[in-house]
Write a structure and sequence with these properties.
Elements lengths: L5 H17 L6 H7 L1 E4 L5 H16 L16 E2 L7 H4 L2 H9 L6 E10 L6 E4 L18 E6 L10 E3 L41 E3 L6 E5 L4 E3 L8 E9 L7 H14 L1 H6 L2 H7 L39 H14 L3 H13 L4
Antiparallel strand pairs: 1-8, 2-3, 3-10, 4-9, 5-8, 5-10, 6-7, 6-9
The chain binds 2-oxoglutaric acid.
Length: 353
């Protein structure tokens, strides 16, 4: 084999240096697809985080949002659209560029929440946040909806870090049949909450502790929870929801997403300064100019289980493609009888390691 000459070695070196110095933070794409969760390390500017912490604390302390913090398990669940200070997280280039580099570009922002666990608060129970389980694409490999969690403090088991069950976004899990709907009244404040499956330790679960500046990126389908906050400080996360590859979805699914987005993010359209709305516009899942988006202010803004949402896995009979997708998803956990018998037979005849 010919040896590379000096000029080509120099070129290679320069290319490597350029790549290393200009590279946007890389998303561990395989980890995200396999586990349903990954961490982008140190991608958020400290000054921006300080502004976001100020805006979050002002919202949490405001009388106007007390009805959005009725539940000590989640803590606050305040839409970020209550303040245009959160715009930089809707348009956050390091996160969106990392998604794009991993093939998850054209991401549109669906909604976002200030989730602040008060000091000495109980665990947030296991849940998954997908709402499109009647769609065939809910059972595929590619994520349809992603969370980007921006924590405002370092997190650990002591102050309520995130935990997750890797792989549960692609495989049925015992918890799927045991849980009530995420962020619903059913999971808030039950007297025997500590004994419920949603607050137990499950095989395969992992803690996802972070440092300030990290962003946890995950598939909406992955089962996740948060430990109790046993510290004396608030533990706040800004959870932002994005729909990657938005233009690839069917017209019907885009319309469904748009309807949900306008409902969940209505304050952006009614209360934000025009310049902030214009800056957000390219990142929104809307099919019309922002000025033409019609906002209806009805319903309970604390309700996260709307009629348009299908919150639990299971084919609802809407179309044949999703029936096929659902069957293959089930098979991933429960191999066909002949496969199971063959595997058991092999295990009997092969010597043990
Ligand atoms: O509070 C946390 O760490 C997790 C929040 C969460 O589960 C969510 O945003 O769905």
């Amino acid at each position: 084999m010919a040896r590379p000459g000096l000029p080509s070695l120099i070129t290679l070196g320069l290319l490597l240096v350029a790549r290393c110095c200009s590279a946007s933070p890389s998303l561990h794409e395989e980890e995200l697809l396999r586990d349903g969760v990954t961490v982008l390390r140190q991608v958020v500017d400290r000054a921006l985080l300080a502004d976001i912490a100020d805006a979050s604390n002002a919202l949490i302390d405001s009388d106007a949002t007390q009805h959005l913090q009725r539940d000590a398990f989640t803590g606050s669940l305040i839409p970020v659209t209550k303040s245009s200070a959160f715009l930089p997280l809707i348009t956050h280039a390091p996160t969106l560029d990392a998604l794009a580099a991993a093939g998850l570009g054209d991401a549109r922002w669906l909604s976002g929440y200030v989730i602040s666990k008060p000091p000495s608060s109980p665990s947030l129970g296991w849940h998954q946040d997908a709402w499109y389980w009647d769609e065939a694409n809910a059972y595929g490999e590619a994520p349809v909806q992603l969370f980007a969690m921006f924590y405002l403090t370092n997190t650990s088991r002591a102050n309520g870090c995130l935990r997750a069950i890797p792989g549960s976004h692609r495989r049925p899990h015992a918890l799927h049949g045991l849980l009530d709907a995420a962020h619903s009244e059913d999971v808030r404040g039950a007297e025997d909450w500590a004994a419920q499956p949603a607050h137990q330790t499950w095989d395969g679960e992992v803690d996802v502790p972070v440092d300030v500046g990290d962003v946890v990126v995950g598939d909406a389908r992955v089962l996740h929870a948060a430990h109790a906050n046993n510290s004396t400080e608030r533990r706040t996360v800004i959870t932002m929801w994005f729909m990657p590859r938005f233009s690839d979805y069917s017209r019907e699914f885009r319309a469904r997403t748009e309807g949900l987005h306008v409902h969940l993010a209505k304050d952006l359209y009614s209360d934000w300064p025009a310049a902030a709305v214009a800056a957000a516009a390219p990142f929104l899942p809307i099919s019309r100019p922002v000025g033409e988006v019609a906002v209806v202010s009805d319903g309970d803004e604390y309700d996260h289980n709307l009629d348009a949402m299908v919150r639990a896995p299971g084919w609802t009979g809407t179309d044949a493609a999703s029936a096929r997708a659902y069957r293959s998803w089930r098979r991933a956990a429960a191999p066909r009888g002949w496969l199971r018998r063959a595997r058991d037979g092999l295990a009997r005849v092969l010597p043990r390691a």
